[in-house]
Amino acid sequence: MQRKISVFDTTLRDGEQMPGVNMNIGEKLRIAYNLERLGVDIIEAGFPAASQNDMRAVEKIAENISGSAIAALARADKADIDAAVKALQKAKSGLLHIFIATSDIHLKHKLGKTREQLLDTVREAVSYGRSLYGNVQFSAEDASRSDPDFLIEVFKTAVECGAGSVCIPDTVGYSVPDEFGALVKRVVNALGGVPVSVHCHNDLGLAVANTLAAIENGASRFDCTVNGIGERAGNASLEETVMALKTRGDVFGVRTGIDTSMLSKVSKTVASVTGVYIPPNKAIVGSNAFSHESGIHQHGVLNDPQTYEIIDPRTVGIRSGTIVLGKLSGHHAFEEKLAELDIKQPQSITEAAYKAFKDLACRKSRIDDDDIRALIEEAIIDSHIVDGYELESYQTQSGDRIKAMAMITVSRQGSIYTEAATGEGPIDACFNALNRIVGKDYKLINYGIKAVTGGTDALGEVRVRIADGENEYVGKGVSTDIIKSSIKSYINAINRAMCTEIINGG
Ligand code: KIV
Ligand code: ZN
Q: How far is the CA of 491 from the centre of ligand 1 (A)?
């Protein structure tokens, strides 16, 4: 029987620490449901002491998810621990995750503590946490740059005070596989049977390699994020680590509980919600991961896929479709296509997507699977927006001799609003007109456009990130007209900003 490795997903906590990523509670819950279906053992849902929003998100996820355990992060202090324990109250199975840094660099320059003082803090925090909650994990931040003897002393102290597992983070992504594997082996041997987890960052592009080295050396759990998102260069990617363990079972001899056929779908959902695109050459989930361009490769794959494919794309949920949709396709074909793509959504969403599909089919000759996924995403986003603004009509004027001008009409709760504005170009003018309508001065932080599929009639997907003071919001819009998708994405970001304000009581 192969050793089971647990998967601890921190997309909703470390992933959300990625600059510019800001998810509301509905979006976090949606990702949590996806992670549960994927078979993740533990979902780190947030850092409750960090904000009211994080607290509410962890509570909501703990209340609704029962197929995965829910972890909440806390610094080694009472207020943080109280917040995390409160957030986990309704969890069927929860994990209180307490951390503090152990490297001399952090002790001196961040915590201003001696090693003795740090041991006292760990004793106090873990004992306190354990007195309130049955399942505690202790993480030693910057473990890979800590003195290994001291690190082991800290871990032993945490375990004596009630921690049921420990985690070795390579917080700054500094370690290399042989070195990290050796550190893990030392800790595993010193702790005699206490489960050891790892948390690897990707600053040198080695997060997955370090995680695999840790597993080879006795780690029984690993932290990861979908698409590898996270602080700076991100964390070990869930899909890459899981598929390396599966594909090279001959080397690792371990198993996870992940349903790999969901990897592609979950990756797309996280990309869509966070607004962080998946690079085409990204292993496992990039759009090129299973494409073959050169004639020699194509010929080989047609004869036998094993020539150039080490993974059957169906293993990660990528199927080439058999149902081709066009303007004559009706409800039945549309639903068959959704089943083929393993898209299961409430009828209100599929109905909205169907209407958008019919509309698109009149303008676009070939509707691809990615078009359908984009329309479903759009319908899901719209369904989360209660009482938001909706685009009614727009008009723009631009040229190289005139100042660009836009006039936009939107509706909200039965009222109609129209404003006109000028700008550096037609899109800037549209955004200025929308700012006028909502009476805010949102700043555009980021603007990205990509064709969902090929051809001049392709759907153009625009993603914007706008800021209102400290807070940033992403928005997405899809249309065959890029000005329209730009306006829709800006309205979507404004609606998300309004939702967050309502949730926060603003
Ligand atoms: O990178 C890190 O050290 C962390 C800890 C909080 C586990 O994210
Ligand atoms: Zn981290």
A: 35
What pLDDT score does 304 carry? 82
Confirm or reject: Cβ of 141 under 6 Å from ligand 1: yes
Q: Which DSSP letter does residue 261 get?
A: G
What is the rounded CA–CA span in Å between residue 249 and residue 65?
Answer: 30
End-to-end CA distance of the chain: 54
* pLDDT greater than 70 at residue 501: no
pLDDT value at residue 476:
85
Residue nearest to atom 8 of ligand 1 (CA): 14
DSSP 33-58: HHHHHHT-SEEEEE-TTT-HHHHHHH
Query: Which among 18, 99, 197 is the best mutation to test ligand 1's pocket, defined by most ligand atoms within 8 Å of the CB?
Result: 99
Q: Which two tokens stand for residue 360?
A: 């698109």
Return the pLDDT at 506. Answer: 36
Residue 504 has pLDDT above 50, yes or no: no
Look up residue 459 and give its DSSP letter.
P
Q: For ligand 1, atom 5, which residue shows the shortest CA distance?
A: 141
Looking at residue 386, its pLDDT comes to 62
Q: Which residue has the higher pLDDT, 467 or 156?
A: 156
In terms of Cβ atoms closer than 10 Å to its own Cβ (0-12, 13-18, 19+), residue 82 is middle
Domain boundaries along the sequence of the chain: 3-274, 321-379, 390-503
User: In angstroms, rounded to a whole number, what is the distance separating the alpha carbons of residues 430 and 408?
Assistant: 7
Please tell me the distance between residue 397's alpha carbon and the centre of ligand 2 in angstroms: 48
CA distance 226 to 138: 23
For the segment 130-144, what is each residue's pLDDT rounded down to a tens digit?
999 999 999 999 999
Exposure on the CB side of residue 442, measured as CA atoms within 13 A: 32
The correct answer on CATH 3.20.20.70 for the domain covering 3-274 is: yes
Among 201, 210, 224, 235, name the best residue to mutate to test ligand 1's pocket (greatest count of ligand atoms within 8 A of Cβ): 201
Domain 390-503, second-level architecture: 2-Layer Sandwich (3.30)
With pLDDT > 70 as the criterion, what percentage of the chain qualifies? 95
Q: Is the CB of 378 under 6 A from ligand 1?
A: no
pTM > 0.85: yes or no = no
d(CA 173, CA 203): 5
